[in-house]
Amino acid sequence: MLRGGLVASETLPELDDGDIAGTLLLVGHAGSTLWPCFSDYLGRSPGPDPLDRWTRNVIEPVAHQFGCQALYPFEKPWWPFQRWISEIEGLRPSPLGILVHPEFGLWHGYRAALAFRQTLSVPERQNLPHPCDGCREKPCMSACPAGAISTDGFSIEPCRSYLASDEGSASCMLAGCSARNACPVGAEYRYVDPQLRFHMAAL
Ligand code: B12
Ligand code: SF4
Ligand code: SF4
What residue spans define the domains of the chain? Predict the structure, then answer.
């Protein structure tokens, strides 16, 4: 799905020829709409980084057709996808580090950005409400069995050790991050179990 467009921003990226892009369109997903298409590919195309490969297969022909350059969230140095979406929709980080959306909650991500030389007409920037502001209990923070989420943010080391343990293999690795599952916002967009397991294994 199209996740909005960005023009007239200091964060617009440099194109391959050194010029600064005039417009950026972000492409992403919410919930599990992506999963049936991707899991079909996954079954047919074994090998490393399947989501990255599938994304390129889908996006490159579109970029070619429209004469723009595709940028990906998995390319290094990292493109600032979260900053771009914050500028477009006004989304802010949850205690987990993931941007939280008032409708999709924590169940959305970004797959690519289409960078155009031209300045296109895009919808006005939004300033969507931040669900964490009104969430007094903050169940995401207490749900993490490894104590990886605190007021200082997300800490990768305790999460990583827990996921490598027998307990972690039987909980978060199977049913997805317990903290993410605990958020009540956008619960109907929670990823289906095979999708959750795919992302946890990749993490
Ligand atoms: C590196 C990275 C990680 C590292 C973070 C290491 C660290 N401490 O910085 C690790 C491996 C831990 C990680 C984990 C996860 N990540 Co990650 N990650 C990235 C990646 C590739 C680059 C981020 C970055 O450094 N950008 C560079 C700076 C310059 O860009 P920026 O937008 O200006 O910077 C923002 C981020 O750095 C963010 N930030 C800072 N610290 C952290 C920590 C975490 C955990 C996250 C998610 C963000 C974050 O705040 C900055 C200001 O806006 C992005 C893809 C991308 N290119 O953006 C995905 C990305 C941020 N990750 C994402 C996701 C979903 C996850 C996981 C949930 C994976 C999973 N299991 O499904 C987990 C979160 C674990 C948890 N319990 O919450 C999504 C977030 C979508 C959203 N709704 O916001 C992204 C955008 C990928 C995507 N394709 O959509 N991730
Ligand atoms: S549980 Fe509450 S604080 Fe945590 S991400 Fe969801 S809305 Fe934000
Ligand atoms: S994956 Fe499990 S250990 Fe890691 S942050 Fe989420 S709840 Fe905590």
Answer: 2-130, 133-202
